[in-house]
Design brief:
The structure holds two protein chains of two kinds.
Chain A: E1 11-13, H1 15-22, E2 31-34, H2 38-43, E3 50-51, E4 70-72
Parallel strand pairs in A: 2-3, 2-4
Chain B: H1 2-12, E1 18-21, H2 50-74, H3 78-106, E2 127-128, E3 132-133, H4 134-141, H5 146-170, H6 174-198
Antiparallel strand pairs in B: 2-3
Helix pairs in contact in B: 2-3, 2-4, 2-6, 3-6, 5-6
Classes of the chains: A alpha/beta, B mainly alpha.
Chain lengths: 73, 199
Amino acid sequence: MGVIDYFKPVETMTAREVRKFLQGRDPREYNLIDVRQPREYEQGHIPGARLIPMAELPGRLAELDPNKPTIAY
Amino acid sequence: MRSRAAASILQTAGFATARSMLGGIRAWEGLTAPGQPEAGMAFFTMAARAEELIALAWLLEEGSRRFYEEAQRSLADSGVQKLLSGLVSAEEHHKASLEKLYQTLTGSLPGKGFPSSLLSDAAPGDYMEGGVRVSEALEWVKGKNTSEFLELAMSLETSSYDLYIKMERRVEAENSKKVFSLLANEEERHLESLAALLR
């Protein structure tokens, strides 16, 4: 990725919308990715989130099912 | 910002819907789980078959039940007693659900020696959900006030929920996935009722 990725328009969700989306939904139906650093993840993460630090994401896309709705934080 | 870049990468890679959460974790008002990605998973490595996973999970639920039951004695506050009874019966319910799943998967009821008959001698009997020793947790509870105790309970339950979701992804056999899917779903409902009681 390049610097340009930071400026592309992307769809967003508020934290409240995310919470509502996750509530009562089977975790197998979505990908929830924590793109922060391991130390930040260890301090506290949304239950069930996968840790894939931003820098590793391009190389680890195969771990995720692209057909599922995916939320990154 | 990082998550915007992440969503952008996912979009480019052809993900059906990729969203970035606004405000990051600071905007998150729900529960969070502490710990590394693999935290608590080691406990389940001594089981291979779904039945053994059920037996191990059952042991943890029993540990939690014992913890909440005995904590009732050390916490004087009468307001928390009802909550603790609720937690004890929730753990009873989880155990019953595991027994039912055992029956569904194997076609027979858990036998007399359940769960130890399914486990090696190395299986620890003193652990509760969250991977904590019951005796240590009870030692910690002594002299603590109600809100400190509730904070611990929420943290343990949230960690378990986190662990069960991750274990469901980790195990490969369909029946093993069923075990953790059941546990995660129950834990989520359990957390909701716990949070409602705290409001």
